[in-house]
Amino acid sequence: MTSIYDFSLKDLEDYLLEKGFKPFHAKQIFRWLYDKRVSDFDQMSDISKKMIAVFKEELTIDPLVLKEMQESKDGTRKYLFELQDGCLIESVMMIFDYGYSACVSSQVGCNMGCSFCASGLLKKQRDLSPGEIVLQALAIQKDLDNYGKRLGNIVVMGTGEPFDNYDNVMKALSIINDPYGLEIGSRHISISTCGVVPGIRRFAKEDLQYNLAISLHAPNDELRNQLMPINRAYPLDVLMEALREYAFVSNRRLTFEYLLLKGVNDSKNEVRQIKELLNGLNAYINLIPYNKVSEKDFETSSDENALRFYDLLKKAGVAVTLRQKKGEDIDAACGQLRANHLK
Ligand code: SF4
Fold first, then answer.
1. 328 in catalytic set
2. Confidence tier at 260 by pLDDT (50, 70, 90)
3. For residue 124, which of 86, 111, 264, 293 is within the disulfide window of CB 3.0 to 4.6 Å?
4. CA–CA separation, 43 and 118 (whole Å)
5. Looking at the predicted structure, is the pLDDT value of residue 327 above 80?
6. What average pLDDT does range 72-101 have in this prediction?
7. Beta strand segments in the chain, E
8. How far does the centroid of ligand 1 lie from the alpha carbon of residue 194, in Å?
9. Residue 74 CB-half CA count within 13 A
10. Residue 286: which of 334, 324, 329, 315 has the closest Cα?
């Protein structure tokens, strides 16, 4: 059965019309789903019994099943959810000075094979539906409801490559962004790709204000080929050309994510290469401490080296931020909680 969370507002209007109901009820139903956050059709008290009966016959309204939750000392929460078919996915809630942020998954497992990543240890089983992506954000919002807090930001940076599940991710984000949906502003929504160039080109043609982040992690092809197999399909010159076009068309600032890997990508050499790569682009680079994955040999750069790298980039005129460590004391690496659970 179809989940009602798979419907955008327009889909629901079309569905209601097809069933002989007035489409304006779609907004009322969205309010029940995303504002009052009910998880039972019977709680929709101003919706006719006839309509509820059709929903019960044809649609599901089930939330995700929480299998495990870990909380870090810094407030980061990691959730392991079970889907209707028994697949497991992870989502993370992080607290920043600008508010509460959810990092959601877009696929069950991932085929991109980045060498430092726990998610890539388990190959892709399937894409997530729009509803399964929306429900992650909704579950985190419901958790925050207990504290009277509001989810303000969404990043599609969990397990999976969003541009490998393009249509479902875009539909999910339209529901998350909808004023009748979770009402998270476009500029508070980010999509992170490992460098799937056809996806970047397609995204450039959308008239959307979402942020685009690129997992860079290496500023030269030799190292990037080792760390991220996607680079063999779309090497840096091809990637950067697509990004320059995106920046030109969208007029939006790009974010480059850069995991700090001790002795791998954190030397002076990389500072120079990053400067060259980003030259002339409206972009900044976000340095991220690496969360250790037990199956991998990589370590995060020392605090001292991370600061040195940050300072050198700054001195070189590169716009740079250094992210605080998050969830160090839990299975914070992307995919780690799921991998450990499946072991
Ligand atoms: S880092 Fe992202 S794209 Fe790479 S394997 Fe992990 S989940 Fe996939």
1. no
2. very high
3. 111
4. 40
5. no
6. 94
7. 2-3, 59-60, 65-71, 77-82, 88-96, 99-104, 107-108, 126-127, 151-156, 189-193, 211-215, 254-260, 283-289, 320-322
8. 7
9. 17
10. 324
Identify whether the C-beta of residue 286 lies closer than 8 Å to the C-beta of residue 258. Answer: yes
| Residue spans in the chain of domains classed CATH 1.10.150.530 | 2-60
Please tell me if the CB atom of residue 164 comes closer than 6 angstroms to any atom of ligand 1: no
| Mean pLDDT, rounded, of the chain | 94
Q: Which of 90, 132, 161, 270 is catalytic?
A: 90
CA separation, residue 94 to residues 73, 114, 236, 238, 258 (Å): 11, 23, 31, 33, 18
Percent of the chain with pLDDT over 70: 96
The rounded distance, in Å, linking the Cα atoms of 191 and 163 is 9
Output the pLDDT for position 24: 97
- β-partners of residue 214 are 193, 256
16 C-alpha vs ligand 1 centroid, how far in Å?
A: 38
Provide CATH 3.20.20.70 ranges for the chain.
65-342
- CATH class of the domain defined by 65-342: alpha beta
Whether 31 has a pLDDT exceeding 90, the answer reads yes
Query: Does residue 85 carry a pLDDT above 80?
Result: yes
Establish whether 90 is a catalytic residue.
yes
Residue listed under structure tokens 């240890």: 121
Give the pLDDT mean for 266-291: 95
> Is 120 close to ligand 1, i.e. is its CB under 6 Å away?
yes
| Residue whose C-alpha is closest to residue 12's, from 37, 33, 43 | 33
The percent of residues above 90 in pLDDT, for the chain, comes to 88
Domain 2-60, CATH among 3.40.50.1980, 3.30.420.280, 1.10.150.530, 3.90.1520.10: 1.10.150.530
- Is 283 in a helix, a strand, or coil? strand
d(CA 106, CA 155) in angstroms, rounded, equals 10
